[in-house]
Amino acid sequence: MFECFQPAMQITSVEKISVEELFEAGIKGLIIDLDNTVTRWNELVVEEKVALWLGRVKKEGIQACVVSNNKKKSRVATVADYLDVPYVFRATKPRRRAFLEAMKMMGTGAENTAVIGDQLFTDVLGGNRLHLYTILVAPISDHEFAGTKILRMGERVLWWLMKKPASANSNSPKFP
């Protein structure tokens, strides 16, 4: 019942993701969320450790594309240009269009693309809908868009439901 919200991996931050493990797993492209994944919400500054990590990703031959629901093209473009990666803004995640567009830009497919983001209802759900490898990271900051704060309440309830043991008479899956 909850499989569409279950990330393949959960980790504290982007730069903690093993580039070597991505390469060994055959990942050729990364769809990376912007707000509270690569930068703090509504900011342009990319922390050095994130930029260095992305440099290692590119050195391994893995492509990246920033995919953001942010409506400000100039902001998304500024960060993507700084990171030297393509981007999709106004993504309307979890809809499929932006994920497909990013894979087309990178020349990758579902079998070799991973999604990295900080939200279950946008990044993980969107990636899982296309059977991509999904990586959930903790948000960089508590400062967020008002709508995201509301979604976070729903995420907390969802995490509780996913971790709740299934009853013996239920067909519900068990989650660790």
SSE layout:
Layout: E1 9-11, H1 19-24, E2 29-32, H2 48-59, E3 63-67, H3 73-83, E4 87-88, H4 96-106, E5 113-117, H5 120-129, E6 133-137, H6 146-163
Parallel strand pairs: 1-6, 2-3, 2-5, 3-4, 5-6
Task: Sum this structure up briefly.
With 176 residues, the chain is α/β, with parallel strands linked by helices. Helices cover 39% and strands 14% of the residues. It has a single domain, classed as Rossmann fold (3-Layer(aba) Sandwich).
Explain what this protein looks like in three dimensions:
39% of the residues lie in helices and 14% in strands. The C terminus is likely disordered. The chain is globular and about 40 Å long. The chain is built from six helices and six strands, in the order E-H-E-H-E-H-E-H-E-H-E-H. With 176 residues, it is of the alpha/beta class. It has a six-stranded parallel beta sheet, with helices on both faces. It has a single domain, classed as 3-Layer(aba) Sandwich (Rossmann fold), CATH 3.40.50.
List keywords for this structure.
alpha/beta, 6-stranded parallel sheet, 176 residues, 14% strand, Rossmann fold, globular
The CATH topology turns out to be Rossmann fold
Tell me roughly what share of residues is in helical segments: 25-40%
Low-pLDDT runs of 5+ residues are 165-176
The biggest sheet, with number of strands, parallel, antiparallel or mixed sense and barrel status, is:
6 strands, parallel
Report how far the terminal alpha carbons are from each other. Answer: 15 Å
Strand order of the largest sheet: 1-6-5-2-3-4
Q: What is the element string, with H for helices and E for strands?
A: EHEHEHEHEHEH
Shape: globular
